[in-house]
Structure formats: C-alpha cells, structure tokens
Amino acid sequence: MLAFSRGVDALNAAFGRIADWLVLIACAVSAGNAFARYGFSSGSNAFLEAQWYAFAGMVMLGASYTLFRNEHVRVDLVYGALGQRARIWVDVLGILFFLMPAMALLAWMTGPFFVESWVRAEVSPAPGGLLRWPVKLLLPLGFLLMSLQGLSELVKRIAMLRGIELPPGRLHASYARPDQ
C-alpha cells in the first residue's frame, strides 16, 4: 500500500507543477489581454476565458498537491495542541468521514456535467468564446486526484499508527515533532 501511496504522491506532485505553471500562464494572459484592450482597443473574450480556465486548473489540479504537502487550511485551535498519535487519528477520521465522502460525491456529480458538455461540443456563448468541455473536465479530474491523495494520506497515517517509519519528505514536518 505504501508503494501505491508513493505513486499517488508522485502523480499529484506532477499535477502540482502543472498548477504552478498555470499561475504564470494566467498572469501572462491577463497582462496580454489588458495590454491589447487598453493599448490597441482590441481584446478577446477567448483571453478572458483562457484566464478563467487557467485559474480553474490552478485550483482543481493544485488542491490534491496541497493536501499532499499538508498545506491545506485547518482550524488549528485544538489540532496543534494534540500529540502526534492524536493528530494522526484526527486525520484518519477526517479523511474517512469528511474528505472521501465529499470527494466521491463531487466526482460523481461532476462527471455527467463534463460528459454532457463533451458530447455536445459545448462552446461558450460569448463571441469568440472557447470550448467548455476542457474546463469542465477539470472538475471530476480534480476530485478524483483529491480522492486518490486522500487514500494516499490514509495509507501513510495508518502506517504511522502501526509504527512504520516513513522516509523524509513523505509527511509534513508537523508529524516530526515528538509526541506530547
């Protein structure tokens, strides 16, 4: 199972790098569109939509990488004061009862949304607009990646509960501090 976890971590690290590049692309498209619009009184709805698509990619492809890096938003009022074993249990329960059901439901709900758009070759109604199915594909893909990363994190937490040492870099530094 730890081999599966390593594979998922590597997959989401690759998608995280894509999300990083999408930040630069969104900025470049935004600046280019503003330059064209205000410098030459010429703009394009396609540029606006491309920026929106890049932002959607940043969020949907970067979320699972954020979970892998343990950099997601967490209410640390109690969690930070817990010992390592208690934090691991909080993570296990959160993954099992919140993350996985939510991601499964969202992936299931957004799959048909994408398929319908793809089958219809849906295009934006705005003049010069882009195809819609590529951005709609990001929804089920992002939720699937998040589900896979949730399983990877669950495998790592269970391994830790069983006393298995994980190599450096497989967990966030917050798990390295001694038990309280």
SSE layout and pairings?
Blueprint: H1 2-40, H2 45-68, H3 76-79, H4 84-120, H5 133-161
Helix pairs in contact: 1-2, 1-5, 2-5, 4-5
Structure report:
There is one protein chain. This protein has 180 residues and is mostly helical. It is built from five helices and no strands. The longest helix is centred in the N-terminal third of the chain and has 39 residues, at 2-40. The two termini are 28 Å apart. 24% of the residues are buried. The mean pLDDT is 89.
Distance between the termini: 28 Å
Assess the beta-strand content as a share of residues: under 5%
Averaging pLDDT over every residue, what do you get?
89
- Counting DSSP E segments of at least 2 residues, the number of strands comes to 0
> What class, by secondary structure content?
mainly alpha
**Weakly predicted, low-confidence segments:** none
Query: In angstroms, what is the radius of gyration?
Result: 20 Å
Portion of residues within helices: over 70%
The biggest sheet amounts to: none
* Coarse morphology: elongated
Label this structure with key terms.
single chain, 180 residues, mainly alpha, 5 helices, 74% helix
Report a brief summary of the structure.
By secondary structure, the protein is an all-alpha fold. It contains five helices and no strands.
